[in-house]
Amino acid sequence: MSAELWPVTEEFAAEIGDVDLSEPLDDADWRLIEDAYNRYSVLVFPDQRLDHGDHAKFAARFGPVARTIDVDWEDVELRLPPDISDVSNLGPDGRVMAPGDRKLEILSGNRLWHTDSSFLTTPANASLLYMPAIPPVGGFTEFADMRAAWDSLDEELKAKVEGRIAMHSIATSRRKMGVELTEAELGVFRAAPQAMVRTHRASGRKSLYIAAHVGDIVGMDRTEAERLLETLMAHATQRQFVYAHRWRPYDLVVWDNKCTLHRGRPFDEGRWPRDAQRATVDDVGPTCEQEGLAYPAEAAQ
Ligand SMILES: [Fe+2]
Q: How many other CB atoms are there within 10 angstroms of residue 153's CB atom?
């Protein structure tokens, strides 16, 4: 057996089939997957039957697997092991959470365009989202291509953001959804400095690195920062940069957070289970370090 790749779009999303990710991968299959990851950003593996161990083991091929941030919230009972983030609408008992559940409110921030864990100094590299159960309608995930967005940004804006640092905080994205985090919920998650333009290691291409988590931009007043972020978001999420994934049960979708944005689309979350289970792989280090940017000490947490 050897894995087969079928592009979904020319250079952003691809499907990979004829590979069973619950089994050890041979070198040729892994090479195909790794090359595809570096070229395409979003990889869809249909019809995978994975237990949590298989899921985490495949994630580990991409780098160190992070612990879910849920272990840092107080009084949270976990449905999944700590190396799998529960981004479903299910409670610890496996049932659909009641409307108004605090965890659902906090997860509502995932409806905004973001890149995973950019509120941590070392953010996520790959995310691997496995979906054993889906709603019959709605609940798509959209992905936007930040390499293409950078390539087509006008020169004046490129000059404005290149070398800049933005502060990313989970409190900022939640506030945009009308959810105020308490001090206890915010816990260790203060704002993290991130380079606004990154160089993608494997392809050498540049990408825009922004998210709904961004509040301040270092060296810019708040109003100007907000306006700039709005302009960049509007540009980066135009339809020609977006792939909308309509889930099938047992899809595993892998994406490269270094050069994509994504958002979950609405569905009737009080009615249908959407069993979204995510393994998250840490990047190699802080983005400012990777880009050789020094950030002011007061910005560091
Ligand atoms: Fe996410």
A: 21
CA of 29 to the centre of ligand 1 (A): 27
Distance 262 CA to ligand 1 centre (A): 6
At the topology level, CATH places domain 4-299 in Double-stranded beta-helix (3.60.130)
pLDDT of residue 190: 84
Q: Is pLDDT at 252 greater than 60 in this prediction? A: yes
How far is Cα 52 from Cα 104, in angstroms, rounded to an integer?
Answer: 22
Lowest mean pLDDT among 93-107, 126-140, 203-217, 228-242: 93-107
Helices (H), 15-134: 27-40, 52-60, 102-107
pTM score, whole prediction: 0.96
Q: How far is the CA of 203 from the centre of ligand 1 (A)?
A: 23
What are the domain boundaries of the chain? 4-299
Given a cut of 60, whether residue 301 has pLDDT beyond it is no
Residue 1 identity (one-letter amino acid): M
Q: Are 131 and 277 in contact (CB under 8 A)?
A: yes
Amino acid at 219: G
What separation in Å is there between the alpha carbon of 105 and the centre of ligand 1? 15
Q: How far is CA 191 from CA 5, 6, 112, 210, in A?
A: 39, 39, 18, 14
Question: Is 60 exceeded by the pLDDT of residue 210?
Answer: yes
Ligand 1 center–CA 1 separation, angstroms: 32
